[in-house]
Design brief:
The chain is of the alpha/beta class and about 325 residues long. Helix content is about 55%, strand content about 10%.
Length: about 325
């Protein structure tokens, strides 16, 4: 599904919840009205009075006394409910989410997605992103990695990559509350960075951690769309708020003047301040990162309080295949 289709699914689910709760409200009304006809009479009187007031207002006539009469009837209904053995709020509107009253949106005037809809949207994004994923820790096969010694490291590429895999799996297993908040996987191409990044996403989603996986190019297209969005236009900003964001191939995205570096910094800064988890992979060296993204952004990525850096070394595994 596209992101728009996922959002439409979320809102459709909200409408189904509304309909289900309205049916329960109607069932409760019938139940108490049959047990105590006076409650049914008061409910009908209240409904007719409200409709009459609306008609008067549409005709330009200011209705008087409706609010006071409604409060009086409500008080009497609550009194009769408790006398009949029901909670006083038994006939109150039913909402799964009181913030948006199950509409999926909050706010007066310009509407924004409610937290309940955002959480569900992120869950669907996670499910969609890792559907039928084969790059998992369980499918990790170290036999594909050379057992030759890494120059100057005193260890084989296989043993070294095994250590990286163990660190990534430990990170995924501790989400979202591990001591390590974020990871930076860097090194040459074809060394397994994307595999481990995707494996982290799969394990996180299995643990119920909402996860969004994007290539750096896709991420920057989102950011650019937000940057040029018109006022009031709703844009997908889930990358700002999702509990775990996976950014693959940082350094392959276009460098738009005044946008790329500045908006990436805003994203990383926001996620750090909010305590959110981020995993980034890049084929760039640390020196190349500093040159491309400036010291200001790179210092965030290399902040040991926030990021654990994992360096990948060795022979390109794709060339061996």
């Amino acid at each position: 599904m596209t992101n728009l289709e996922l959002l439409q699914k979320v809102l459709a689910e909200r409408r189904e919840i509304q309909a289900r709760n309205e049916q329960e409200e109607q069932r409760r009304e019938r139940e108490v009205s049959e047990q105590n006809p006076e409650i049914g009479r008061l409910i009908d009187e209240r409904r007719r009075a409200i409709f009459a007031g609306l008609r008067q207002a549409l005709d330009g006539v200011i209705p008087f006394g409706i609010e006071q009469d409604t409060l009086r009837r409500n008080a009497r209904i609550e009194q009769l409910l408790t006398q009949s053995g029901y909670p006083a709020d038994y006939l109150a509107p039913i909402y799964d989410c009181t913030l948006c009253e199950d509409t999926g949106y909050t706010g007066d005037g310009q509407k924004t997605l409610c937290a309940c809809a955002t959480r569900r949207y992120q869950q669907l994004l996670t499910d969609e992103a890792f559907r039928d994923e084969i790059q998992t820790f369980e499918n990790y096969d170290e036999r594909l990695i050379p057992a030759d010694p890494l120059p100057g490291k005193g260890v084989s590429q296989r043993a070294y990559t095994r250590l990286l895999r163990e660190q990534c799996e430990a990170y995924a297993n501790a989400l979202p509350d591990g001591q390590v908040r974020s990871l930076l996987l860097y090194g040459g191409s074809g060394l397994g960075k994307t595999f481990l990044l995707r494996a982290i996403g799969v394990r996180a989603s299995e643990r119920g951690v909402h996860t969004l996986a994007l290539t750096a190019n896709t991420l920057l297209n989102r950011i650019r769309a937000q940057y040029f969005a018109r006022g009031g236009e709703q844009m997908d900003d889930s990358h700002m708020h999702v509990p775990l964001l996976l950014i693959d191939d940082l350094g392959t995205e276009p460098l738009w003047e005044g946008i790329t570096v500045e908006q990436l910094f805003a994203l990383i800064d926001h996620r750090q301040r909010m305590g959110l988890n981020t995993v980034i992979s890049t084929n760039l060296s640390l020196t190349e990162l500093k040159s491309r993204y400036t010291e200001r952004l790179t210092s965030r990525l290399l902040d040991e309080r926030e990021y654990q850096t994992l360096a990948f070394y060795g022979e390109d595994l794709r060339q061996r295949r």
